[in-house]
């Protein structure tokens, strides 16, 4: 029973800590900004965020007008509230940036934008903007081990309670009362 109480306390404390940072997490700025015409190719795309992000669960994908990914290296943090994706954009044309950010407080945000390089005009509307794709390191969103463990513990507790309820015998009322 003590172990069960300890697990219950741990779950409550975890929930309180998780909710303590419930302010809205969002992307504040992207550089280069959307719908801009740049004279030279940028060496990176950066996102300034309202709170910290988990770079292992986040991704930024930059594609040229032919749809080729121009990411050059892994996504990294910049300071406490930024992400940086190096790119090798070596030709003129329109570029698309698609991002998905998973913040350290559990929230997430996604978006997309376009910019042009060396054309002298803002990027044209070329239709639907593709989703952000994982980087070459095999990024993926898997099962959270802490959440999975808590679900298993919850299931075991439920099973024990059901067994105890089923084993309990109802009183028939025919037994004499002892005084």
Structural account:
There is one protein chain. The protein is of the alpha+beta class and 179 residues long. The protein is 23% helix and 26% strand. The radius of gyration is 26 Å and the shape is rod-shaped.
Rg from alpha-carbon coordinates: 26 Å
Percent of residues in helical segments? 10-25%
Distance between the terminal alpha carbons, to the nearest Å? Answer: 32 Å
Unreliable runs: 16-20
Determine the mean pLDDT: 81
* Main sheet: strand order: 1-3-6-5
Helical/strand content category: alpha+beta
SSE inventory with pairings:
Layout: H1 2-19, E1 27-31, E2 36-38, E3 44-49, E4 59-63, E5 76-77, E6 82-86, E7 93-102, E8 108-117, H2 145-167
Parallel strand pairs: 2-8
Antiparallel strand pairs: 1-3, 3-6, 4-7, 5-6, 7-8
Q: How would you sum up this structure in a few lines?
A:
With 179 residues, this protein is of the alpha+beta class. The protein has two helices and eight strands.
Name the descriptors.
8 strands, alpha+beta, four-stranded mixed β-sheet, four-stranded antiparallel β-sheet, single chain
